[in-house]
């Protein structure tokens, strides 16, 4: 498989593909973190998570259009506004969905799966009616174009780096929120033992809604980041959903570190193999390995040990 | 069942439901529909096989598989491979650079038939594979997952991933599988042209016959102790386990049964439609199959047939006139069936139409019930009207 490449070329292929993998990793992490906190706390699988991400992407698209026409002088900084807007829009919709639908289904996790799938169909078709079936892209501000030349052979694009930094910042922020704040303590209490958490006076229904909204909000930020490295279409979200589920399950459902580790492993494996055997086989092989490991070790990489 | 018991069953309420369905499928629809529409109904019915499998697997035993399209597709591809080989005889494919192999292989510069295509020259092997391949895969998945006590949402996600893997694999390996176009241009089955209207009508009746066969197998499973254990497992898995039953074995069994039904459905699909492609396997197709089952009523064997018919007919109807509205309707259906009527049409029927029936046919019912009670042993009496069993202790709010 390495025939015809010199050692230094192989090394730079690995470095570049590794970096391409890191961009994929950033999107995966942002999506998977949102999914993981929802699934970890409530056991709910949100099939519409990809569509929430795309909602964030469309929010960014609209914001960039707004800045282009009305505030061209501030265009360089629109992304930060867009990110906040994407978070707010998605979190608000998430809270609404939780209130209308999800909270009635907490005792039937399989049914949530179907209901959120229905939601995803509706959202997809809504995007198609509003934004058209064609993919849209945002214009990047100038400072995000170009690339760092690390060596002659290795180039790292700035937008990819930027997205990665955002992913790391969000992951760090989420860690602080979960392990260093009052809200996080309550969430972890509910995850470990819901009846006891309720017994000591934690409003678990409120925590559920906040967590669902937070997860959807992070999906929105993922969407904003996604526009930096790819174009957005009505069904772009669906392409990521299976991978993201596997990442969450593979990492161990209630472990944020596990989610990040598995996102890293899966995205790196996929993008490195992609170069040598083509996209579809790389994906098949990665998914097969993950499914195989999950069959042998269903609790995932890092399982939270709680008494059930 | 001896002769008199059989005739008594036919006048029981459940027997009448089956007769009505048979009347609809065998007499009414063939009379009122032209061959093209009838063929479409046949296509919808092939999905009823899958929905029936889901009733057993998801409704009764509580195992939600989002990858039933995989088994449907495997059955369909097995049949398609046989038909394709028959269609690519050396005489038919003389213009190819390698005559005697399917056309898409020739386009992809393959010069000989891959090894896994070889056995599909034999019709008997194909018939075996239509059921055998899906069941084998279901057994492997089921064995790996259920003996490790993986279930619920995890199982659903894994089966969905398997659907994704198979689709990507088939699309990626164009030379071996026909890629995204699938296996097309199928012509004859053992020399019998399957594209004519007469052949399609015959195939429709074969499909209905197979469907009733599967319905009776499902009913048999449901009314035995086996079916009771499946239901018990769904409600209180640990109690069943502590009573000494091997829960994993029962789960593997019902998952394989569902896979077998889906495989048969897939093979009939290929015969009726004339091609097979990865679009009937993937994530979206697989999860749509769940809604056929959910709309009919996840606990109702006959409901599966009506669910598949109604959803697919609505889909064709909408797609012809308002294609952009269909996803909204489908989404609303998913949400509605879960939130508003979790027992589907069968549940609505039981709570609104059945009391009416009782009032109308009061005398019939009085006569019918004791007959069914005396004809069989005590447990069978409890099973009366078992097509739509009312399980009092079934509560979705299990932990």
UniProtKB/TrEMBL annotation, chain A:
CDD domains found in the cross-reference section: TM_PBP1_LivH_like
GO MF, any single term: transmembrane transporter activity
Localization, UniProt: Cell inner membrane
Membrane topology qualifier: Multi-pass membrane protein
Classification via InterPro entries: ABC_transp_permease (IPR001851), ABC_UrtB_bac (IPR017779), BCAA_transport_permease (IPR052157)
Recorded GO CC terms: plasma membrane
Transmembrane segments: 20-40, 52-71, 77-101, 153-178, 212-233, 239-263, 275-296
GO terms under biological process: amino acid transport
Keywords: Amino-acid transport, Cell membrane, Membrane, Transmembrane, Transmembrane helix, Transport
Family listed: Belongs to the binding-protein-dependent transport system permease family. LivHM subfamily.
Protein name listed in UniProt: Urea ABC transporter permease subunit UrtB
Organism: Marinobacter vulgaris
UniProtKB/TrEMBL annotation, chain B:
Region span, Disordered: 367-399
Compartments, as annotated in UniProt: Cell inner membrane
Cited Pfam families: BPD_transp_2
InterPro entries reported in the protein's UniProt record: ABC_transp_permease, ABC_transptr_urea_perm_UrtC, LivM-like
CDD domains: TM_PBP1_LivM_like (cd06581)
Top-level taxon of origin: Bacteria
Transmembrane segments: 15-33, 45-67, 123-146, 153-172, 202-221, 242-262, 268-292, 299-319, 325-349
Membrane topology recorded in Swiss-Prot or TrEMBL: Multi-pass membrane protein
Keyword terms, alphabetized: Cell membrane, Membrane, Transmembrane, Transmembrane helix
GO cellular component, one term: plasma membrane
Molecular function as annotated in GO: branched-chain amino acid transmembrane transporter activity
PANTHER family: HIGH-AFFINITY BRANCHED-CHAIN AMINO ACID TRANSPORT SYSTEM PERMEASE (PTHR30482), SLR1201 PROTEIN (PTHR30482:SF4)
Full protein name: Urea ABC transporter permease subunit UrtC
Organism taxonomic ancestry: Bacteria, Pseudomonadati, Pseudomonadota, Gammaproteobacteria, Pseudomonadales
Gene name of the record: urtC
């Amino acid at each position: 498989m390495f025939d015809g490449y010199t050692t230094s070329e192989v090394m730079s292929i690995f470095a570049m593909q590794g970096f391409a993998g890191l961009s994929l990793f950033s999107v995966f992490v942002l999506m998977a973190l949102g999914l993981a906190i929802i699934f970890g706390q409530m056991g709910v699988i949100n099939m519409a998570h990809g569509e929430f991400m795309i909602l964030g992407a469309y929010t960014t698209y609209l914001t960039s259009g707004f800045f282009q026409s009305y505030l061209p002088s501030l265009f360089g900084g629109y992304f930060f506004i867009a990110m906040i807007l994407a978070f707010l829009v998605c979190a608000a919709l998430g809270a609404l969905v939780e209130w209308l639908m999800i909270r009635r289904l907490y005792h039937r996790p399989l049914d949530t799966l179907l209901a959120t799938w229905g939601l995803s169909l509706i959202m997809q078709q809504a995007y198609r009616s509003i934004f058209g079936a064609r993919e849209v892209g945002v214009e990047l501000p100038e400072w995000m174009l170009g690339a760092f030349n690390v060596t002659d052979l290795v180039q790292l694009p700035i937008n990819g780096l930027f997205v990665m930094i955002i992913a790391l910042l969000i992951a760090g922020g989420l860690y602080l929120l979960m392990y260093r704040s009052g809200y996080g303590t309550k969430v972890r209490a509910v995850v470990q033992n819901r009846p006891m958490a309720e017994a000591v006076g934690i409003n678990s229904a409120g925590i559920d809604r906040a967590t669902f909204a937070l997860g959807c909000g992070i999906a929105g930020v993922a969407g904003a980041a996604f526009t930096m490295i790819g174009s957005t279409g009505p069904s772009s979200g669906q392409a990521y959903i299976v991978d993201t589920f596997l990442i969450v399950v593979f990492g161990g459902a209630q472990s944020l570190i596990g989610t990040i580790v598995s996102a890293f492993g899966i995205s790196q494996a996929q993008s490195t193999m992609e170069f040598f055997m083509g996209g579809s086989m790389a994906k098949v092989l990665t998914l097969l390995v993950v499914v195989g490991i999950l069959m042998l070790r269903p609790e995932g990489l890092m399982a939270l040990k709680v008494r059930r | 069942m001896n002769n008199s018991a059989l005739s008594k069953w036919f006048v029981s309420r459940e027997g009448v439901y089956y007769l009505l369905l048979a009347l609809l499928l065998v007499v009414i629809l063939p009379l009122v529909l032209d061959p093209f529409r009838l063929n479409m109904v046949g296509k919808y019915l092939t999905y009823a096989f899958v929905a029936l499998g889901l009733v057993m697997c998801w409704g009764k035993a509580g195992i939600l598989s989002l990858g039933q399209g995989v088994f449907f597709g495997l059955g369909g591809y097995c049949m398609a491979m046989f038909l394709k080989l028959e269609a690519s005889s050396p005489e038919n494919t003389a213009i190819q650079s390698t005559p005697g192999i399917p056309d898409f292989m020739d386009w992809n510069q393959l010069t000989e038939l891959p090894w896994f295509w070889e056995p599909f020259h034999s019709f008997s092997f194909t018939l075996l594979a239509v059921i055998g391949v899906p069941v084998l895969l279901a057994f492997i998945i089921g064995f790996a997952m259920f003996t490790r006590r993986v279930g619920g949402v995890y199982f659903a996600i894994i089966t969905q991933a398997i659907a994704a893997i198979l689709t990507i694999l088939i699309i990626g390996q164009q030379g071996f599988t026909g890629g995204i176009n699938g296996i097309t241009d199928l012509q004859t089955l053992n020399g019998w042209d399957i594209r004519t209207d007469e052949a399609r009508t015959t195939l429709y009746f074969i499909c209905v016959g197979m469907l009733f066969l599967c319905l009776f197998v499902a009913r048999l499973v449901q009314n035995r102790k086996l079916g009771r254990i499946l239901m018990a497992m769904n409600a209180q898995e640990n109690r069943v386990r502590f009573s000494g039953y091997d829960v994993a074995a029962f789960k593997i069994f019902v998952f394989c049964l569902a896979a077998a039904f889906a495989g048969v459905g897939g093979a009939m699909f290929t015969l009726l439609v004339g091609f097979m492609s990865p679009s009937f396997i993937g994530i979206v197709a697989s999860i749509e199959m769940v809604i056929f089952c959910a709309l009919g009523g996840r606990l109702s064997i006959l409901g599966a047939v009506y669910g598949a018919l109604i959803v697919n007919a609505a889909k064709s109807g909408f797609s012809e006139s308002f294609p952009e509205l269909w996803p909204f309707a489908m989404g609303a259906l998913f949400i509605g069936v879960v939130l508003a009527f979790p027992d589907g049409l069968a549940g609505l029927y039981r709570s609104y139409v059945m009391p009416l029936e009782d009032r109308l046919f009061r005398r019939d019912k009085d006569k019918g019930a004791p007959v069914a009670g005396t004809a069989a042993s005590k447990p069978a009496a409890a099973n009366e009207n078992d097509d739509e069993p009312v399980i009092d202790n079934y509560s979705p709010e299990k932990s």
